[in-house]
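In the previous chapter we treated chains in isolation. Here, by contrast, the input contains four separate entities that must be folded as one system, with a combined length of 1354 residues.
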Amino acid sequence: MIPAKFDYIKATSLDQAIELLAKHGFDAKVVAGGHSLIPAMKLRLNRPAVLIDIKGIEGLDGITEEGGHIVVGANCTHNQIASSELVNQHVGILATTARTIGDVQVRNKGTIGGSLAHADPAADYPATVLACEAIIEVLGSNGQRSIPAVDFFTGMFTTALEDDEIITAVRFPKVADGNYQKFYQSASRFAVVGVATVKNGSSVKVGITGVSDSPYRATAVEQAYDGTGSAAEHAVDGVDVMSDHFANAEYRAHLAKVMVKKGLEG
Amino acid sequence: MRVTLTVNGKPYSDDLEPRTLLAHYLRDTLNLTGTHVGCDTSNCGACTILMDGKAVKSCTILAVQADGSEITTIEGMANGGELHPIQQAFKENHGLQCGFCTPGMVMTAADILQNNPNPTEQEVRHGLEGNFCRCTGYHNIVKSVLHASELIK
Amino acid sequence: MKISGKHIIEAPVEAVWQKILDPAVLERVTPGIDQLEKLAADRYKAIADIRMGPVKGRFTGSLAIEDKVAPESCTIVLDQKSKIGNVKASITLKLVPLADHQTAVGYTGEARMSGMLARMGQRLLGGVVSTLAKQFFSAFEKEVNG
Amino acid sequence: METYIGKPIKRREDNRFLTGKGRYTDDIKLPGMCHAAFVRSPYAHAKILRINTEAARNAEGVVTVFTAADGPGDFGVPCGWQVNFKNGDTMREPQHPLLAKDKVRHLGEPVAVVIAATMALARDAAELVEVDYEELPAVTNPQEAMAAGAPLVHDAWEDNAAFDWCIGNDRAEVEAALKDAYHVTELEFVNQRLAPNAIEPRSYIADYDVNADKWTLYSSTQNPHLIRLLLCAFALGIPEHKVRVVSYDVGGGFGSKIYHYTEEALLIWATKEIGRPVKWTADRSEAFLTDAHGRDHVVKSKMGFDKDGKIVAHLTDEYCAMGAYLSTFAPAIPTYLHGTLFQGLYTTPLIHLNVVAPFTHTVPVDAYRGAGRPEATYLIERLVSKAAKEMGIDPAEIRFKNFIPAFDGVKQPGYQTQVALQYDSGNYAPTLEKALEIVDYKGFRQEQAEARKQGKLLGIGISTWIEGCGIAPSAVVGALGARAGLYEVGHVRVQPTGKVTVFTGTHSHGQGHETVFAQFVADRLGIPIEDVDIAHGDTNEVAFGMGTYGSRSLAVGGSAIVKSIDKVLEKGAKIAAHKLEAAVEDIEYAQGKWTVKGTDKSISFGDVSLTAYVPHDYPEGLEPGLDFSSFYDPANFTFPFGTHIAIVEVNADTGKVTLKRFVAVDDVGNVMNPMIVDGQIHGGVVQGIGQALLEEVVYDDHGQMLTGSYMDYAMPRADDLPFIETDRTVTPCPHNPLGAKGAGEAGTIGATPAVVNAVVDALHHLGVDDIQMPLTPQRVWAAMQNVQR
């Protein structure tokens, strides 16, 4: 399998990358690790005319502590996140989530920025950024924006990113008590259901991926939370549950409840 | 587009179409045909190589993305006629049958053992989740990796 | 696969009916539609550039509006081809007036894909349709009330 | 002197695979080689209205574009096995064209081929070929294909049946026995369609030499000579002596690389047209669409028992898909490789199987590891386990009650089944006894009861199995419709220095022939294994052969080599006798030398070899040389057997099945290399587990494939599995010189029902008595829900 032809530009700065994006618009795609994009290009399901490689841009692959937040650069790989001391110490749920993605090889190459921008409805990070109330930092022709996770995912493979915007970092509040529960699709190992739970005293925040066309905050669960797992019954309240060959809507809704219960009790 | 990189310790520089996948560059341009391609969707792991010391799937990386990197393929594992301990362990434990997935298994095993020199059975099994084998039922592959961890000590 | 859903539009049923059959409006609000060229009454040549996550492709083909019962229902028939596979869809829209100048737009139908698109995209089709519908109705609502 | 048989000798082929020096077809580059890309149908059934290749022809790097109208449409690939209707009518056999002509009949059927300078350019240009189709209704389920009004796959016939066949006792007699039975167990299910998924995709290079007027085909085939025969005699009508087929290393086959595929024939046709070598290697997504699939049976069964749990009758009706065309061995799979195993290991006195084999709008179905026998075993072992539950008999006990008593095929005759075949030798109970002991069956039942109290769902599943392999006696298969003999060729060339090259017509694609064959050759000749080399996979080197499948290589191919070794030793004895100045009757051969009995006068194998090639002092009238080729046609199939036991845990919340233990006690006859036999069992078992829990090709109602990549077709991974516990008993095959039966398919045959029986056992107390394969979490959960409702 070989992609259709394209031009490849290795961007050396964010400004250059954004300029290129603005110029090529619909025809351009940003690549970092490439593990969401390149398989689609090989199948020729996607054929960008221009590929803008941002992997070499300095300053996008660090993990730092800033003002009580852990800031993860967009180009950080899943393995880098999974093994980061800072992340493990302060946002353990993020490290756990990263460890469930793909396989060793994919985790060595795929990046958090790429995964979030791709917004696969079965990706793992979305649940966790939602539950953590992380902020997605983006830069575009019109400058910098900080997008709260809850506003970021707008549908299947669609996000609040404008055509000329690039994710630069994800800012995570510190999370003391959180867990990520994943039910694997047996072929792709994507999430049939992924549930991120962040507990803070008597309150809880729950992010769910895989269930609907877009990841969501399970606000009904959060409101009904009573310190036990019983609020899990509300996992799919008001949600249009997806159906596919592996999990029809009924089973998927059931799994969501099971995973949320595990999360609440975990 | 010019790509300059090191493969198995030797420098290479070639003009390539940007769409050339690293796996195809290794196989077709450098004639390193030990790296195999078994699927289109980054699942099977037959194309696994080490890029800057880490296991990656070379069918999902453009050669231009590998510019400046250091690559190790299966051909770079043995030292002359002497097999690498992982290769040795696969041989001693019958960790291969048709041999097609084998290079990818060996390269993934190298990554696993680098990060975890004393893995448990479950850690080895989990580490191999990105590599399909259709012949061995993984039984002897898992044994091989566990044995390799002993040999490397 | 079967498709169904319902959206409430903040506009009276006549306004919705009028706009939903207006090719100029359809061209503006349908996600990806680049061009809608009239071939005959209620029959258009349609060109769409669809970009959704892993999938990006140019689709060309026809869009027809059939079985019109004003201002209650109609069926939109799509037949689109692309290098990555073809899409055929037949979707019936039902408009139900609600109180306070609202209209419920329900849709039911079937979409079928072929080729690589079907093999790689089938499991995602439900979500894609749901997202596209959300985009369509949100743009449509702006158009009606704009 | 060291001997080798029975020892876990490390594989000699491993160094090249471990160092990246394997020679798979796609690794080969030829000067001037160009690349082919196929334009494939996006529909399961459609009329081809128009093909426009102009843009593609004019695209960068394109050598040419062919459609059926350019010549390939005149040719088709043949079917190698004829199975007629039970009323005597001839099997319906449509042409299987190299490129589709007026109609496409399955998703992915090729309609054009683009040949270009590089693989990338060929694919670019293939996208430019415009094909207008008129889509037609399709049918993908074999039962629905036989319903009135179903879309016809081939218009030439009034319905979709390729044939309608039966085997066993008179149907009325079986029905009557069922009517009178104390208990009847019924089962209806689908033995789902599987994709073989050798990790190496199919690959071919065709190269025509205009000066010599000769072709070479490099192919990832399991049987190079058979491909050459089919290609020359049937597909293209080209002279066989001008065609060389080379198959060096092949990355797994599992059946899918037995068949003569259209791409192979097309490339051989095309290379002459363009005068350049041309390569095609399948993508995985093409592999899903074009490699012959396995299984796909819709089954309805009844098994009757007396009050003691003895089987009195078995009646099964099946619809078994053929796909759009008849693949090379396809008709044999649900018939002679399936119905003939309906005896199982049991004394069932009355058996009847009826098979309707329809065409469907899908890729052809053919042999996949086990080929018809896993389907038979699954059916019988599910029926027996289900009956045990229904009758309140222990599942081990019901099997012991019904086993055919032991027979060795020498002192006691073979066992004549109700379904044509005669078993060679068997001793079934010990494998079950041993397996029960290994799992501590009684202990497990206690553990299970305890676990249940805590809400944990543990289950144990037993499957006993038998298969007919060592394929196969030519006269028998000929009578059953095979259009080829199934003997094997073994050629032993003793070099002047006493080194030995063995040429075998079988083909190793993971089975380890280079090691295993060398083991018994070295032992029989009494020479070091280093002095023996095994060659295969090149029609120019090896005289002839039928290839590797059906667990036949050792039993049939090995026996052919033994025949040649016997000839070598017989002639060697004459030379030795001459040199030792003794009568042939007075010398004996042992440990690499001939000795005059009762003396210390001897001559080594090497000296005799040299004498044979430097015959200065030589027996009068004896030809020089020490080089023999033999054809071995087996006297019977071989019948390995065994017991598999699975222990599973089912997650009560999600329905996910976790395999806790898997025990396989198999009897594959004499074992040459236990390491390799165990490896074959491990791999087979895991493929069987794959069918039970994960794998399924799903076509939708329109013939689109929903599981056409590894994103959607689930296969076992390392972390889905425990170690497989193996053990064995040894009941030698009485009719071949090695006493070997065959181990390649054993695991796949035994494993699937063991796993399903275990899951049903875990859930039976909840009211679950069957679940459709694969036992995905969703299906298992739904089964639990349904009984609770």
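The first strand of chain C starts at residue 2 and ends at 9. Residues 115-145 of chain C form the longest helix (31 residues). Compare these points with the single-chain example from earlier in the chapter.
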